Here is the input.
Amino acid sequence: MKQLLLPVIVALTCLPSAAQTRSSQDRGKIMVEARPWDRQHPDRPAWAIYPSLTADSLMLPASPDPLNAYGSLAKGHKFKATGYFRVRKLHGRWIMVDPVGRVHIDASVSSVSPGRGKTNKTAFAEKFRDKEDWAYLTSIELTSYGFNGAGTWSDAEAFQSMNRCHQDSHFTICPMLNLMSGYAATQGKAHQLPGHTGYPNQCIPVFDPGFEEYCDKVLADAAIRYGKDPDVIGYFSDNELPLGVKNLEGYLDLPDDDYGHKAAVRWLESKGIGRNEISDDIRKEFAGFAADTYYSIVRQSIRKHDPNHMYLGSRLHGGAKYLKEVYQAAGRHCDIISMNFYGKWEISAEDLKRWENWSDTPFIITEFYTKAEDSGLANTTGAGWLVHDQSSRSAHYQNFVIGLLRSRCCVGWCWFKYMDNDPTASGVDPSNLNSNKGCYDNRYHPYADLVDGMRKVNSMRYSISNLRKRGDR
Here is the structure.
């Protein structure tokens, strides 16, 4: 068996703030051995050492940040209360503002729902009286780890009910609407891929005239359920849409009577370009056109039916988040741009600067995680990095989040996910079969080393980002 390499502490240089340069921050990092994920060759990537900054190496106040029931900064600057979440700038930095007007940076966990596998169900019956008991105890535990809410794919109904029953509870939720995937399914144009929905030629049917009507129907129903709920941060419209440089030829190769094919032909004709003249710049421009069409339809529907809540985007993934035309389209219509992030140990300063230059719109990272060998799971599915143990997962989380807090545009993050995959579950997404993704195992027990590290950085996120001022205790 491969010997576990525990994180080794290097020079613990205290750092005044997250505003320091990258070179000075490197001096306080610990070393973590990890292996990246490779879709094509999952067994081939080599293990390597990745320096990682943790909360213990930062010069932080002696006490955690003072928080209110929303997980917002309870002291300091206060905006006008509107009763709902929104985004604003404070001293040149994007932030969320909570319903009572306090500065908010979101820290949440996705897929906070009871598991469906045999192991999950047996453990649930042993630990909880019912779903109401589970929701209440789980919200208390996650809050103690510095999280303020449940991200998408969570049991929103259970947490809505809990918040109503406990007036001092404001555990937030972010519903997923599944607008494009839902519409495509009604048209026989959707199929399951690992982690997300697939479409014909990987082209979303956004040019179908029925898509706008479908959005209106879904949003009208959503507004009845969520429209007056102050604990809803906003809506995700879809997950990981295939917006990219292959879209143009993909649409052109659809049947001649397909609305997407017709739209692509008209778009090329408007440019005076033949198919044999298509360049990469034209492909990128068309990807931006398709993205803009999608985001504009969705935003219009959200504003029409529920003007109280923010539009959180479609969780860009892969190359889409590095495609300027797609990113800018999201920025024109979304209140917050959401992105799922894999493939790199941390988000580079160059990536953060690129996104800031492309769009003056705040962003959130809606998926990231690592998988550890000491969990006892096979860890052969899912895009997260592989590490040796839970303390290494903790170091990755802290390093990743501290890096995010360097950005003037990051207003939050969401760990993927609440609970490990249960290999006894059936009918699950093929990317969620047997991996250590959770901050809890599949018997509802938290990973102590991981959640301790999460608590350390989550509970000091306002201090790390310099939003907590001296004297605020």
